[in-house]
TrEMBL record:
Keyword Protein biosynthesis on entry: no
Residue span(s) of domain FAD/NAD(P)-binding: 11-290
Protein name according to UniProt: Thioredoxin reductase (NADPH)
Origin superkingdom: Archaea
Pfam families (UniProt xref): Pyr_redox_2 (PF07992)
Gene3D superfamilies referenced in this protein's UniProt entry, alphabetically: FAD/NAD(P)-binding domain
Length: 340
């Protein structure tokens, strides 16, 4: 398999995706002595965060772009190569490695980490701008709406249940179906009827924002105006799993990539982390997944200790063969030391 580009860059590990999970996986593999390239297209869900929540040690006034840029700078300081490129496909090479094809270059490696995340299915405008009244993550942002009027948009089970969960934070919750037909079950309909949630079926026709840009109210087709501080859009997710399909990785019915608890997929040498895998879509969880995956890759790629069978053939490890870290990363690590 070969991409359109003639430029080929070779690594021990290539990470596709520059969100918190991908950055952390690349950080660990680099610091554990493996030549690593990270390829990202830019943007992503983390980049959209105006304020970072639930991340110990990171002030909440930190934005998503600042968090990611700091991560990229950290990676480069340790010797990881970071590329802005759009990856279109991936496959195995004739010698059992993996080739990832980008618009600018092909990236070949012994191990690949898929950290491509997902895209939230967004409601159609007119709507408040993301971060100023339109949100997607209940666990990140419910705290923002304590004792405030809040909406949930959607017609499915998830929208109904998120509306009910928001009653733990405020007594003013509306469920907006926006001219759509409810798709929830009779049992869920009964649940809604027995909780103080207004189900509003009219289409949204206008948005009122304050001087600070935050949502103040939504206008509806019947002429009514309802005040909200913000709310949640629950229309599902589109998982960026095309590379997993190219490489033959098993996927779940919802589109997530099947992984074990260290990011291993069904294909040896291919790992997946972050929002493209099952579980809660949270930055702290993504960081943990990236760390565990980086460590798992180190177990696959590290030089020492060598197997007994290999030493029986090649003999004992000689002094000149250690340390196992490549010269370039060794020099980078020595230069990085701060305790001299």
């Amino acid at each position: 398999m070969s991409g359109d580009s003639t430029d080929q860059r070779e690594y021990d590990v290539v990470v596709i995706g520059g969100g918190p999970a991908g950055l952390t996986a690349a950080l660990y593999t680099t610091r554990l002595g493996h030549a690593t390239g990270l390829v990202e297209r830019g943007g992503g869900r983390a980049a959209m965060m105006e304020d970072v929540h639930n991340l110990v040690g990171v002030p909440e006034e930190t934005g998503g772009n600042e968090l990611l840029e700091t991560g990229r700078e950290q990676l480069e300081s340790y010797g990881c190569d970071v590329f802005r490129d759009f990856v279109s496909s991936a496959g195995e090479t004739d010698d059992g490695r993996f080739r990832v094809c980008g618009a600018d270059a092909d990236y070949v490696a012994d191990c690949v980490v898929i950290a491509t995340g997902f895209d939230d299915v967004r409601p159609q405008p007119p709507l408040p701008r993301t971060g100023r009244g339109l949100h997607y993550c209940l666990h990140c942002d419910a705290y923002m709406f304590v004792d405030e009027p809040v909406y949930v948009m959607g017609t499915g089970e998830s929208a109904a249940h998120v509306a009910a969960i928001m009653l733990n934070f405020t007594d003013d919750v509306d469920l907006l179906t926006r001219d759509g037909d409810p798709e929830w079950s009779d049992e869920t309909a009964s649940m809604l009827e027995n909780h103080p949630i207004d189900v509003v079926s009219e289409a949204v026709t206008g948005v009122r924002n304050g001087a600070d840009g935050w949502l103040e109210a939504l206008e509806f087709a019947d002429g009514s105006v309802r005040e909200y501080r913000g709310g949640f859009a629950m229309y599902g997710s589109e998982y960026n799993n095309g590379l997993a399909a190219d490489l033959g990785c098993e996927r779940n019915d919802d589109g997530t990539i099947v992984v074990d608890d260290h990011g291993r997929t069904s294909v040896d040498g291919v790992f997946a982390v972050g929002d493209v895998t099952p579980g809660h879509n949270q930055v702290p969880i993504a960081l943990g997944e990236g760390a565990k995956t980086g460590i798992a890759i180190h177990w696959v790629l590290r030089e020492f200790p060598r197997d007994i069978e290999e030493m029986e053939t090649a003999g004992p490890v000689r002094d000149e063969e250690v340390p196992g870290i490549p010269d370039e990363l060794l020099e980078q690590a020595v230069a990085f030391h701060t305790y001299d």
